[in-house]
């Protein structure tokens, strides 16, 4: 599924983000940039040790912020590491922090002149963010950014599993 927003295309696919050929893929990282499970572990395994070497030099990344490294052995030239919030009860700024994680990733892509970026569904795995709410926040934040910034031409959400894809597709249908 895809929609056009000004000069950009926002698309949804079900798949493996480590196979993306966009200028950058986004990693749902932890604040220590230490690698981990889920998409974080998959990106580090597929990208090789050069990504972790750069992460160690950077050191940390606060929740809601983003940093950029090489893509290592990935098809993507860069990995943008962002830290989404751990969902507790929805009253501790989780929504704002999740929106910030997407916005800061897009800003880094713009600053580095990148034209295409692929996102996973940040914070919806081990961090427990409800998928429907996360889809609304991530898509809404991305659409707002693309309306205001004409430099990025493609934003792809690479969703793991049909269930996640269906939730994002339903939300995109509401917003488009």
Helix content: 25-40%
| Total of helices | 5
The CATH H-level homologous superfamily: Leucine Aminopeptidase, subunit E, domain 1
- CATH A-level architecture: 3-Layer(aba) Sandwich
Which fold does the CATH topology refer to?
A: Leucine Aminopeptidase, subunit E, domain 1
Strand content: 15-25%
Number of domains: 1
Report the major sheet.
7 strands, mixed
N- and C-termini, Cα separation: 11 Å
Which stretches of 5+ consecutive residues score pLDDT under 50?
A: none
**CATH class designation:** Alpha Beta
Class per helix and strand makeup: alpha/beta
Mean of residue pLDDT values: 97
Order of helices and strands: EEEHHEEHEHEH
* Arrangement of strands in the largest sheet: 1-2-7-6-3-5-4
Question: What does this 3D model show about the protein?
Answer:
There is one protein chain. The chain has 5 helices and 7 strands. The longest helix is centred in the middle third of the chain and has 18 residues, at about 95-110. By secondary structure, it is of the alpha/beta class. It has a single domain, classed as Leucine Aminopeptidase, subunit E, domain 1. Helices cover about 40% and strands about 20% of the residues. The mean pLDDT is about 95. It is globular and about 40 Å long.
């Amino acid at each position: 599924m895809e929609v056009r927003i000004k000069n950009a295309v926002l698309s949804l696919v079900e798949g493996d983000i480590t196979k993306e050929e966009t200028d950058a893929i986004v990693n749902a990282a932890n604040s220590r940039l230490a690698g981990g499970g889920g998409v974080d572990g998959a990106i580090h395994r597929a990208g090789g040790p050069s990504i972790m070497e750069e992460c160690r030099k950077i050191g940390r990344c606060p929740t809601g912020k983003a940093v950029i490294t090489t893509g290592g052995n990935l098809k993507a030239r860069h990995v943008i590491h962002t830290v989404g919030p751990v969902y507790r009860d929805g009253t501790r700024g989780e929504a704002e922090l999740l929106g910030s994680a997407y916005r800061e990733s897009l800003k880094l892509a713009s600053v580095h002149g990148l034209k295409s970026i692929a996102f996973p569904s940040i914070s919806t795995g081990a961090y427990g963010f409800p998928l429907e709410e996360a889809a609304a926040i991530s898509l809404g934040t991305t659409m707002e950014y693309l309306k205001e910034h004409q430099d990025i031409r493609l934003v792809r959400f690479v969703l793991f599993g049909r269930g996640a894809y269906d939730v994002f597709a339903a939300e995109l249908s509401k917003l488009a």
